[in-house]
């Protein structure tokens, strides 16, 4: 969840470290800090709050160095205080940044305290930096000290470590938390992901779990967990620095909502022919694996889980059994492992530790095949799955996921089609679905054209404390997603219910202060949801209904209808989520919240 940057370069690295932190801030923004080797000492600047604050407090004319590390924090162990902010320093000799959680920190803390180490923070990280110092004091150099230290750690970590006596050296280590090495001429960098480094290089190496990298005056040597020197491919990132600029928009979330038409077009490109889904786009092994697949098990978290809930409808409609689990629940419950099941993980970041853990467990328990639908090319999920299908959404910076969700839905529909072909999906249905998919970018633009109408509607929410979202069938997950978006960025308590469940409890909550948002496309459930809407209306509830303009749903006392352009039922969730994203966005604008970095949240959840 935290973001790490490190550098050993030929010229001053402080501006680059701060720029890298800004680009990593989506991972955590409770506090930020930087430590460099300068004037024969380790010098540190830390701040509670945002990187911008840290930047303001640094005197860039004075604070210059060639070796340094930096960190933006999402608090786990210990509160949000300067004392707990990274980098952590041991005896003005070693400085270290850490992303992850060390489970055995207490026993290491006791051992180090007995040796005379004083702890100034409540973090688990401070044990690591002290342990590295401890090994150095016994004669190890920095590399060996880190190797010996990580051998003692239980848990997850990505580390960047520097040491006063080896001023041109930076050691990185990773286990179950992401870390990349950026390469440029005789310089090298560490970053939690490529966005941190893209302003200085597009050449990078992905570290495997257990790897340790030694960056020593521009020389880069990688060691695996056995301590053997290993080669890892140097890759070229396709990320462009511009792709992560805000441009004409006020917030990344707004930009990403408006990029959805293009993101969907990019996700479809090369994956469909005139009338078919191209199965090879799921990989060489795909046909063989899909031929064997007897059931699908989807695993994901948050918004990605909701895309899985939509997809279950598609899989089962096309004759393939499908279960969907929240990753932590999948890991926590007993399983009767079905034969020839395909595990499908869905993740924007590909680094969500709960999803990774669930996949590991699924493999251990005997689930046979795995496929990931992911937006981050070199991520851990991509590297540990048998089949990979990339959503081409481009970088998603806003913590609230938007274009990742709609491109996940498109990808899942393509998957349901190629698997469904082997079951009950008829050729002519595939043809018409492919046509519908091709028309999606235009339909997305139509939905986005309602932006100002929804901005006006949002004014009715600004003073509300609760909201209820209703949907049925394919659209219950869309109601869930609408509620999640609203609570994440506007802090309004929002619940989503299957509309049919209303009378089994939640109807008791309805009064004039509780806006009720209903997702009511023109499908076989329309009459049922109309009845649910009347149940709310009869109890004085204030309804906002997103309905097909041909559905005959009219505005009435207590009911406001927002018309949505007609859309084929199967792909309709991809369109109906857009007004809900816009609604959450505009409510948050009115409330003045920090839309791209809502309180307490981080974009990429890499701790359990
Ligand atoms: O990167 P992932 O898709 O695996 O992330 C899963 C969730 O953490 C994520 O969708 C989260 O719920 C978003 N903040 C939702 O907007």
Q: Supply the number of structural domains.
A: 3
* CATH homology superfamily of the largest domain: Aminohydrolase, N-terminal nucleophile (Ntn) domain
Query: Mean of residue pLDDT?
Result: 94
The percent range for helix content is 25-40%
CATH class of the largest domain: Alpha Beta
Q: Trace the largest sheet across and list its strands.
A: 3-2-4-1-10-9-11-15
Structural commentary:
The protein has 608 residues and is an alpha/beta fold. The protein is 34% helix and 24% strand. It contains 18 helices and 25 strands. The chain starts with a strand and ends in a 17-residue tail after the last helix. It binds 5-amino-5-deoxy-1-O-phosphono-D-mannitol (M6R). 5-amino-5-deoxy-1-O-phosphono-D-mannitol (M6R) binds next to helix 9 and helix 16.
Structural topology:
Elements: E1 3-8, H1 14-24, E2 31-38, E3 41-48, H2 51-57, E4 67-73, E5 88-90, E6 94-102, H3 105-114, H4 125-137, H5 142-150, E7 155-163, E8 169-175, E9 180-184, E10 187-191, E11 203-206, E12 212-216, E13 219-223, E14 229-230, E15 235-236, H6 252-258, H7 260-268, H8 286-292, E16 295-300, H9 302-317, E17 321-326, H10 327-332, E18 341-347, H11 353-365, E19 369-374, H12 380-384, E20 387-390, H13 403-420, H14 427-448, H15 451-458, E21 466-471, H16 476-490, E22 493-498, E23 515-520, H17 526-537, E24 542-548, E25 559-564, H18 572-591
Parallel strand pairs: 16-17, 16-18, 18-19, 19-20, 21-22, 21-23, 23-24, 24-25
Antiparallel strand pairs: 1-4, 1-10, 2-3, 2-4, 5-6, 6-7, 7-8, 8-12, 9-10, 9-11, 11-15, 12-13, 13-14
Helix pairs in contact: 3-4, 4-5, 7-13, 7-14, 9-13, 9-16, 14-18, 15-18, 16-18
Bound molecules: 5-amino-5-deoxy-1-O-phosphono-D-mannitol (M6R).
5-amino-5-deoxy-1-O-phosphono-D-mannitol binds at residues 301-304, 347-349, 352, 355, 399-401, 484, 488, 604-605.
């Amino acid at each position: 969840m935290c973001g790490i940057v490190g550098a050993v370069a030929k010229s001053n690295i402080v501006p680059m470290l701060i720029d890298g932190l800004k680009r990593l801030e989506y991972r955590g923004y409770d506090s930020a800090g930087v430590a460099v080797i300068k004037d024969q000492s380790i010098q540190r600047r830390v701040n509670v709050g945002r990187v911008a604050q840290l930047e303001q407090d640094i005197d860039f004319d004075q604070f210059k160095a060639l070796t340094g590390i930096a960190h933006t924090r999402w608090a786990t162990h210990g509160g949000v205080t300067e004392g707990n902010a990274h980098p952590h320093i041991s005896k003005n000799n070693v400085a270290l940044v850490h992303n992850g959680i060390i489970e055995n920190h207490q026993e290491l803390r006791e051992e180090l305290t007995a040796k005379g180490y004083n702890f100034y923070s409540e973090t688990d990280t401070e044990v690591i930096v002290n342990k590295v110092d401890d090994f150095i004091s016994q004669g190890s150099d920095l590399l060996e000290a880190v190797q010996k230290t990580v051998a003692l750690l239980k848990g997850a970590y990505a580390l960047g470590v520097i040491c006063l006596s080896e001023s041109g050296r930076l050691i990185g280590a990773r286990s179950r938390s992401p870390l990349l090495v950026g390469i440029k001429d005789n310089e090298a960098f560490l970053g939690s992901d490529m966005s941190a480094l893209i302003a200085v290089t597009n050449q990078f190496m992905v570290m495997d779990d257990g790897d340790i990298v030694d960056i020593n005056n521009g020389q880069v040597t990688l060691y695996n967990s056995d301590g053997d020197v290993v080669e890892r491919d140097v890759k070229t990132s396709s990320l462009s620095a511009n792709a992560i600029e805000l441009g004409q928009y006020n917030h990344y979330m707004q930009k990403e909502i408006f990029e959805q038409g293009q993101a969907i077009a990019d996700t479809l490109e090369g994956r469909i022919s005139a009338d078919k889904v191209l199965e090879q786009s799921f990989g060489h092994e795909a046909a063989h694996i899909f031929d064997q697949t007897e059931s699908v098990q989807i695993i994901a978290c948050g918004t990605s889980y909701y895309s899985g809930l939509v997809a279950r409808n598609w899989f089962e409609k096309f004759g393939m059994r499908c279960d969907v689990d929240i990753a932590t629940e999948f890991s926590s419950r007993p399983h009767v492992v079905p034969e020839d099941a395909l595990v499908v993980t869905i993740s924007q970041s590909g680094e969500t530790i709960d999803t990774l853990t669930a996949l590991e467990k699924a493999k251990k328990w005997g689930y046979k095949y795995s496929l990931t639908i992911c937006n981050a090319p070199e991520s851990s999920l991509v590297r540990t799955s048998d089949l990979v299908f990339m959503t081409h959404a481009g970088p998603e910076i806003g913590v609230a996921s938007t274009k990742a969700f709609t491109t996940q839905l498109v990808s899942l529909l393509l998957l349901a089609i190629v698997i469904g072909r082997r079951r009950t999906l008829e050729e002519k249905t595939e043809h018409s679905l492919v046509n519908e998919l091709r028309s999606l970018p235009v339909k997305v633009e139509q939905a986005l054209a309602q932006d100002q109408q929804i901005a006006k509607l949002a004014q009715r929410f600004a003073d509300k404390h609760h909201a209820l979202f209703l949907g049925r069938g394919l659209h219950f997950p869309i109601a869930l997603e609408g509620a999640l978006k609203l609570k994440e960025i506007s802090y309004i308590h929002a619940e989503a219910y299957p509309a049919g469940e209303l009378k089994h409890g939640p109807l008791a909550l309805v009064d004039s202060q509780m806006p009720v948002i209903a997702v009511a496309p023109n499908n076989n459930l329309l009459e049922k949801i109309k009845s649910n809407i009347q149940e709310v209306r009869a109890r004085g509830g204030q309804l906002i209904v997103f309905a097909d303009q041909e559905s005959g749903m009219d505005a009435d006392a207590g009911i406001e209808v927002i018309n949505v352009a007609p859309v084929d039922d199967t792909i309709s969730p991809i369109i109906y989520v857009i007004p809900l994203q816009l609604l959450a966005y505009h409510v948050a604008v009115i409330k003045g919240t920090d839309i791209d970095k809502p309180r307490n949240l981080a974009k990429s959840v890499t701790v359990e």
